[in-house]
Amino acid sequence: MKRIENKENFPISEAGNPELTEREMEVLELAGHGFSQKEIAERLFLYTKTVDKHIENIKKKFNINKSTEIIGVYTCIKKSKKFDVELLRQYGLQIFFILINLCDGGIPRQ
Question: For residues 80 and 24, what is the distance between their CA atoms, to the nearest angstrom?
C-alpha cells in the first residue's frame, strides 16, 4: 500500500500525526463533534471564512479532501493514534472507527 509523504514538512506529533495549532485543534474538536462552520465561527467568535481556512489547513496537513474525513482525524488524535487516510478510504468511516477502537497499532491491511 502506498504511503502518504509529509510533503510540506509539517511538524509531527508523538503519535505520528502532523501537529496542529491551538486554534486548529479547537476547530477540529468542534468539527469532530458535528458542528457546522457557521456554528464553529459563532462559538469561537471568528468569521466563517477564518474557520474555513483552518479547516482547509487541517485537510492539507492530513492529506484529506472530504469534510467527513475530519471526523476520522479527530478520533485518531483523541485516541493518540496515527491517522491513516488510506485505511479510512479503503474501509470507509464506520469500519475505520471500529478498527481504531479495537486495534492497538496493528490494523489489518489488504
Answer: 17
The C-alpha atoms of residue 67 and residue 78 are separated, in whole angstroms, by 18
Extract the C-alpha cell encoding 3.
504511503
Cell reading at 35: 458542528
State the pTM of this model: 0.81
Per-residue cell: 95: 469500519
pLDDT profile of the chain (110 residues), mean per 10: 48 85 96 95 98 97 92 91 90 86 58
Cβ-count burial 81-101 (b if 16+ within 10 Å, e if not): bbbbbebbeebeeeebeebbe
- The H-assigned helical ranges of 6-47 are 22-32, 37-44
Which residue, 44, 43, 40, 103, is CA-closest to 67? Answer: 40
Angstrom distance (rounded) from CA 82 to CA 73: 9
Alpha-helix residue ranges (DSSP H) falling in the chain: 22-32, 37-44, 48-62, 69-78, 85-91, 93-102
